[in-house]
């Protein structure tokens, strides 16, 4: 028959005053020669052993091949730290700080620096011109449009640190001139959409003549080179009779102006020899004719 006491494991018999005792082994400056077994013995003669193994823990040196990476390394012994940053225009890919661990390796893989780039620009506008198209951080892209188009949007955009462009690309808009008003008692011969370089012509109704430019051109500022002309009441040149002429000869005649029909030698005027330009823009009489003079013998 087994004793009930055999169920309890054997151990130190600790007196009441020993229960509050604490024993500590402190090694402040260890070297590999400090390897060994350290024994702690109580005043009562009880002892315990500690096996101490001392190793020089060092992490591998961090390469400095990345010229765009800046690092501050305390050393490569255990618990040493290394901190990283990147030069302007580069992003740090990985941790900003790593620590040399007891296993002799760094807590994480050292980071690297990646150049900051903005996404490619999608320039669908075939008229849009882009200069110095570089996508790296801080680079500028300048835009322009050909003659006959105006730039709508920002003429310059910049690649920012967050890898986005400062603005959307602009676009080129065709320059148009507003349709001009037809002059009173006149009309515009060409109608429709007027782009840079397009021209139009004015004309006046019968009995009126143009005062000003009859043709105007849409320039690259979206303006007409000349304002609409004025249609002024006047008479056109009445023509010349056969075997005669009209004095004075002009392209048009003001209201109230007179002309005289003169015939060549051997001809005489048949009809009113003088015509007056009336307020309606018509001559007071039809143009006279020149008839041969018949001499009787």
Automatic annotation (TrEMBL):
A Pfam family matched in the record? Sushi
Per the record's keyword annotation, is Transferase included, yes or no?
no
Highest taxon listed in the record's lineage: Eukaryota
Could you list this entry's UniProt keywords, alphabetically sorted: Disulfide bond, Glycoprotein, Repeat, Signal, Sushi
Ranges for domain Sushi come to: 57-115, 116-174, 175-233, 234-292
Q: Which organism is it from?
A: Trichonephila clavata
Residue pairs linked by disulfide bridges in the UniProt entry: 86-113, 145-172, 204-231, 263-290
Query: Does the record's keyword annotation contain Secreted?
Result: no
InterPro entries referenced in this protein's UniProt entry, alphabetically:
Sushi/SCR/CCP_sf, Sushi_SCR_CCP_dom
Please report the name of this protein according to its UniProt entry.
CUB and sushi domain-containing protein 1
Q: Which PANTHER family match?
A: COMPLEMENT C2, SUSHI DOMAIN-CONTAINING PROTEIN
């Amino acid at each position: 028959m087994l004793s009930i006491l055999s169920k309890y494991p054997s151990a130190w018999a600790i007196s009441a005053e020993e229960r509050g005792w604490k024993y500590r082994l402190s090694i402040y400056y260890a070297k590999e020669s400090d390897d060994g077994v350290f024994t702690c013995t109580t005043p009562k003669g009880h002892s315990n052993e500690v096996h101490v193994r001392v190793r020089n823990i060092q992490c591998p040196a961090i390469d400095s091949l990345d010229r765009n990476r800046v690092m501050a390394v305390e050393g490569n012994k255990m618990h040493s730290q290394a901190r990283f940053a990147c030069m302007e225009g580069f992003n740090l890919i990985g941790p900003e700080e790593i620590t040399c661990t007891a296993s002799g390796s760094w807590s994480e893989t050292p980071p690297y620096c990646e150049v900051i780039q903005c996404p490619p620009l999608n320039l669908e506008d075939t008229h849009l011109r882009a200069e110095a198209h570089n996508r790296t951080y801080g680079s500028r892209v300048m835009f322009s449009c050909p003659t006959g188009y105006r730039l709508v949007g920002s003429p310059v955009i910049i690649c920012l640190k967050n890898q986005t462009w400062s603005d959307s690309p602009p676009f080129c808009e065709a320059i148009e001139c507003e349709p001009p008003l037809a002059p009173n008692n006149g009309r515009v011969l060409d109608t429709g959409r007027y782009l840079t370089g397009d021209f139009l012509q004015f004309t006046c109704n019968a009995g009126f003549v143009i005062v000003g430019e009859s043709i105007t051109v849409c320039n690259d500022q979206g303006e007409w080179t000349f304002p609409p002309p004025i249609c002024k009441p006047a008479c056109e040149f009445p023509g010349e009779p056969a075997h005669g002429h009209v004095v004075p000869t002009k392209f048009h005649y003001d209201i109230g102006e007179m002309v005289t029909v003169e015939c060549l030698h051997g001809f005489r005027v048949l009809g009113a020899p003088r015509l007056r330009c009336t307020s309606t823009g018509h001559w007071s009489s039809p143009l006279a004719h020149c008839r041969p003079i018949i001499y009787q013998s």
